[in-house]
Amino acid sequence: MKNWSFKKWNTVLGWFLFAIALITYLSTIEHSLSFWDCGEYISSAVKLEVTHAPGAALFQIMGAVASIFALGNAENYSIVINAMSALFSAFTILFLFWTITHFLRRLLHKDVEQITKHQEISVLFAGVIGALCFTFSDTFWFSAVEGEVYAMASMFIALLVWLITKWENEYKSADNERWIILIFFIIGLSVGVHMMCMLAIPAICLIYYARNYTFSWKGFIVANLITLGILAFVFKIIFPLIMTMFGKLEIFFVNGLGLPFHSGTIVAFVVMAVISYLLIKYAGKTQKKIYQTAVLSLVYMIIGFSCWLVIPIRANANPPMNLNDPDTAIGMRDYYNRA
């Protein structure tokens, strides 16, 4: 094998495993629905209804697109939503394989151009075994064939970890920060599927630490504390803070000033857009990449989180399934917090 062939075989084998997983899951999908939340999620996706808190906005949007392929036949809705889970699960296997081969190569302390023929075969073989083991594992296979959020959430976790490996491959490049910004955008989107996608954040932070810093116990502890800080900021501060701001402005403009419903929500959107603009402008003036990356990551994460708008929009339409009825900014805050 030549050096360039490792990249080629890595790509080809990844898509080959994707095909194996997709065929396996499509041939074994549920033709109706499973127990627990599957019926709720399938119905909410097809008709864009409101599920139980804290919602699954992006899953609903993707499910609504998938339901087009049912061609108006109600009996096919379950099949297309279940098939959507099978597709996302196959992508999980694809990203998992590429992540395994990346970390095995890093374990050898070799770049692509330094790896030997025997090492190439060992790395690729190990990647295939690891990906296939996960493909046919009981728990993952179970979620891959039903209309639940876990298949899509698993795909987002695998995607996030794979994206940080792409950054690691290009960390010396002048524009390597684009991968970090993309990661935060995906994190924002993933909140619209399931909160468990946040579990990828510690892995991302520790990979960043391992690439940029020499290991020491002090540095490792500090890196873990920073990781917890980022996780708390994303999960417990920034999103709840946005919800709180929208809720308080809604109360002020409606109850305090006597303006129509949702007037405070409109003002909150304007305020958030202005703050984002000022932050980007300030970061640009500093000419410091760390500030620019942090600000753009925050703004893009909020843009990804905007998929949640489908929930209050549809709640205002009063669909048959409208759990918690989060049709206002205050209702959305309580909905997010599972109040």
Automatic annotation (TrEMBL):
It comes from the Bacteria. This is Uncharacterized protein. It comes from Chryseobacterium vietnamense.
